[in-house]
Amino acid sequence: MDFPFNDDKEESLVPGVFEIPGEPAVVINGLPPISSSVDTFSPFPTVTDAVEESLDTVIGPWFEGREVRKLFGNKYYYGEITEFGEEVGRFKVKYENGNVEELEWNELDQVLQPLNLNIPLATIFTESIRRKQRSIQKSGKSKGGTTNEGVKIE
User: Fold this and answer.
1) What pTM does this model have?
2) How far apart are CA 152 and CA 143, in angstroms?
3) In a domain, 110, yes or no
């Protein structure tokens, strides 16, 4: 049987990164050479557990306020991420029925609802800053300091 392609010819594509006009993505043609030697320098940084943990403490608070949906028994319950515990690396979720649960990232990833992309990033950022300021004020760290207007609190 004759096939319409020839195995002897290789398609000659130049390795590189290309932007496609009108498309939000880029095309990466080719992969870097992979060496079996452990001592070989890799152009890609290796993510260690320490780096991953520090990223969690930076990114974790950005999930506060996000919605989750989890199956308990035969019913789905909606909840909201209320807090990220930096010490333990867990997300505290409060469900609509009042129950509270702490989830690790791999558990949260399974129940996290898609983000509403209609909200501008600037709004999310300013809301995050406001929450942070409220939590600082609630913890009493602002006593003896200055207010936002720069007036000394006695």
Assistant:
1) 0.43
2) 10
3) yes
